[in-house]
Design a protein that fits this description.
Blueprint: H1 2-18, H2 21-26, H3 38-43, H4 60-83, H5 115-118, H6 134-137, H7 149-172, H8 183-196, H9 206-213, H10 222-232, H11 244-250, H12 253-264, H13 276-291, H14 296-313, H15 321-325, H16 328-352, H17 373-376, E1 378-380, E2 390-394, H18 397-418, H19 428-447, H20 467-484, H21 486-489, H22 498-525, H23 534-550, H24 558-573, H25 579-594, H26 651-658, E3 678-679, E4 684-685
Antiparallel strand pairs: 1-2, 3-4
Helix pairs in contact: 7-9, 8-10, 10-12, 10-13, 13-14, 14-16, 16-18, 18-19, 18-20, 19-20, 20-22, 20-23, 22-23, 23-24, 23-25, 24-25
Protein name: Zn(2)-C6 fungal-type domain-containing protein
Region (Disordered): 80-114
Biased composition (Basic and acidic residues): 91-102
């Protein structure tokens, strides 16, 4: 009996195994006729047979092993959960995920089973770490960095559109708590903040923040809100009430005090743990303290802490648990925060003459921003114009940010190869080859720009360009000057063929002229006092080149007019941001040293403070285009282009003008009592705060307490104009 049963079972298995592919897929009985079975002949199919792999049978030993492993994993998970305090928030966010209100809508996670795991493996440890087995921290099916962006784009766009509609509803219904300030003023400041993010990246992802602000979800925190309002008050609404509370908010004291109180409070020390909203707030505070308040050391520290948290959370690599176990929205937020920090790191490295902390070789995050809502949303000139209005032009925020990230990667290479501390040890020919290679990268970047970003000065129709687009192009031309000026200014590179120096300076001169054209375009349609502050750096870099050309030409030369234009622009920009003040000082002293008459430039504003805590400038809503300085007036149509014959310039005199400071002793009458230290081959200098003693120029660097009378430079000492680093 057993033999008969075993024989029939064996035959049944053989029949199943011998079924053709078509019959097996359709679960049909196959008669195995040759050359085609009946079913394949009936359906007109090719009759093929594939060999099936034999599956291993579940033995008792394998089952016991799996049960033991399951028990060990459960015990480990319970131990980790017990070790976490019930009051401890999620290390990624300040609030648990289930605090989101169903009324405001929550996108469904694309990894529902992995969300519990994400709260455990929140810290990043690389492959060399002894703390974690890196290979087992990430699910094996989620290590691919390729993003299936088709459906994700649609989902993010739909959620962004929905949340934009809900913003007004939540504001009217009182769900948006601005923590003590009037809701209408808070809403206006938030609108200003969203409008100012275009030129520097998306530190805060608007749909997630506004949704969670209504329900105190994980993408919202009081610290982040006050940091955003602190950034926004640099550009206050034109119509303000005169009450004390409103004025206190507008000059920034309220929001900074609240943010720093939350940051340093003892009962919930936010700096002792890595939280995404804290990293975002630190990035925003660093930007405002640097560009607005001129507190460069504190800004540098805040930026460093934000970068440390970003690395700790694993936002710098797509292979971390953050990207592999979280929702598509969280991944979008992570990419935007990382690249915003990367860009800010490069901008501050250029301004402060310090090595970047986020290096491209240590990071692996795709430059890919899938939410396209703010890409096609109509641009509003709020905070960019004296008469704000909605323009018939898409904001192009996403594509501009993408190109800014790519340009920042090239900027890092320039800083590392030409301005590193050990670069002066390299052979000049090696550096020349590196610069030519980097020039090709810059040219390729420019050629690959999408048509809506590749704007040519003088050929664009009105309003076919935007402030952040012009800022992007100004950064491109500034990098060209940074790339080639060392071959004119630095002593050990001047030993190359003189034709190389001539070619390098011609390249810088052409770039400086293009920056001047960009300034003309910007001035025609937008307010120069509120422009993105990298335009201030581009203006300064352009002015250092025009000053040297103007020194060799007649008083009416185009280069002198361009230099005066740069001084005019910087004088306007310092009204709203204080970063241009130092650039303006350096250019004025450089013009005096080179013998270029620029007239008398008056400070854009001056103030005295009686309250030591009031460290912020007072803003009066005035016409953005009103000139409140006194340089020689230059009409835009008077500046046509660069002086025609650059070959006639005395390149040796220009080269000597860069190192003139080393050939003069400090005046005996104590006019120049500061100390200058040239570092490496960067052309950088560190000058103490008393460098302008006796010049009538105040250099108070504590907070934002500035006292600037007339910018008279009659008694100014000899000064070096650095491109990298403003450590004065």
């Amino acid at each position: 009996m057993v033999t008969v049963s075993s024989s029939s079972e064996r035959k049944r298995k053989q029949r199943v195994a011998a079924a053709c592919d078509f019959c097996r897929r359709r679960k049909l009985g196959c008669d195995n006729k040759k050359p085609k079975c009946t079913k394949c002949s009936l359906h007109g199919r090719e009759c093929t047979y594939s060999e099936r792999p034999r599956s291993e049978r579940p033995s008792n030993s394998r089952i016991a092993h799996l049960l033991d492993e399951n028990d060990r994993l459960r015990q480990s998970l319970e131990a980790l959960q017990r070790s976490r305090s019930p009051s401890t928030p999620d290390p990624i966010h300040e609030e648990p995920l289930d605090h989101r209100s169903p009324e405001v809508g929550t996108p469904v996670s694309s990894h529902p089973a992995a969300e519990a795991t994400a709260t455990i493996a929140t810290k990043f440890h690389g492959p060399s770490s002894a703390l974690h087995h890196w290979a087992t921290d990430i699910p094996s099916d989620s290590r691919s960095t390729k993003i299936d962006d088709g459906q994700v784009k649609k989902d993010l766009f739909a959620e962004a559109a929905r949340q934009r509609q809900l913003e007004r509803i939540n504001l009217v219904s009182g769900k948006l708590d601005f923590e003590g300030i009037d809701a209408s003023l808070g809403s206006e400041l938030l609108q200003t903040f969203w409008n100012r993010q275009h030129h520097s990246g998306t530190v805060v992802y608007r749909p997630a923040f506004m949704r969670d602000m209504a329900c105190h979800g994980p993408n919202f925190s009081s610290l982040l809100l006050n940091a955003m309002l602190f950034v926004a008050v640099k550009h206050p609404p034109l119509q303000l009430s005169n009450d004390t509370a409103s004025q206190s908010c507008v000059n920034g004291i309220t929001f900074r005090r609240k943010a720093e109180a939350l940051l340093y409070q003892a009962d919930t020390p936010l700096l002792s743990k890595s939280i995404l909203t804290t990293a975002q707030a630190l990035l925003l505070m660093a930007d405002a303290l640097f560009s607005w308040c001129d507190e460069r050391s504190l800004s540098w520290h805040y930026l460093g802490m934000a970068i440390s948290m970003i690395v700790d959370l694993g936002l710098h690599t797509a292979r971390s648990a953050f990207y592999c176990t979280r929702s598509a929205e969280d991944q979008e937020i992570g990419r935007r925060v990382f690249w915003s920090a990367y860009v800010a790191d490069k901008v501050q490295s250029i301004y402060q003459g310090r090595p970047p902390r986020l290096r491209d070789t240590d990071c692996m995050v795709p430059i890919q921003f899938l939410d396209e809502y703010d890409e096609f949303e109509a641009f509003h000139s709020l905070s960019y114009s004296a008469t704000p209005s909605q323009l018939d032009t898409p904001a192009r925020s996403g594509s501009t940010f993408e190109q800014l990230c790519k340009l920042s990667v090239i900027a890092e290479s320039i800083l590392a190869k030409l301005y590193g501390e050990k670069s002066f040890l390299l052979d000049p020919r090696t550096l020349l080859q590196a610069s030519l290679s980097l020039k090709i990268e810059l040219e390729q970047w420019r050629c690959s720009l999408p048509p809506h970003l590749d704007l040519v000065a003088g050929e664009s129709s009105p309003f076919n360009f935007l402030p952040h687009t012009l800022s992007l192009l100004s950064m491109y031309y500034s990098l060209i000057i940074i790339l080639f000026r060392p071959f004119v200014s630095d002593g050990h590179l001047q030993t190359l063929d003189p034709s190389n120096a001539n070619s390098a300076f011609t390249t810088c001169a052409n770039a400086a002229t293009q920056i001047n054209n960009i300034l003309n375009l910007y001035k025609q349609h937008f307010c120069l006092k509120t422009c993105p502050y990298f335009i201030s750096y581009a203006t300064y870099a352009s002015g250092t080149i025009h000053a040297r050309i103007a020194a060799q030409n007649l008083a009416g030369s185009q280069s002198r007019k361009m230099l005066l234009h740069c001084l005019d622009v910087l004088s306007q920009q310092q009204v709203q941001c204080h970063a241009p003040r130092q650039s303006l000082k350096i250019l004025l002293v450089l013009a005096k040293r080179l013998g270029v008459n620029v007239g008398t430039v008056t400070a854009a504003w001056s103030r005295t403070d009686t309250d030591a805590d009031d460290q912020f400038p007072e803003f009066a809503p005035t016409n953005c285009f009103q000139l409140i300085h006194e340089p020689t007036t230059i009409e835009l149509n008077e500046i046509s282009g660069l002086d025609a014959n650059l070959d006639a310039l005395d390149i040796d005199a220009i080269m000597r003008s860069f190192d003139q400071i080393s050939q003069h002793a400090a005046p005996a009458n104590n006019e120049f009592v500061g100390r200058t230290r040239v570092v490496g081959n960067c052309g950088r200098s560190d000058v103490t705060d008393d460098s302008f003693a006796g010049t009538g120029i105040s250099t108070s660097l504590q907070g934002c307490d500035f006292d600037l009378p007339s910018f008279s430079v009659d008694n100014a000492g000899i000064f070096l104009d650095p491109l990298i680093g403003f450590e004065f």
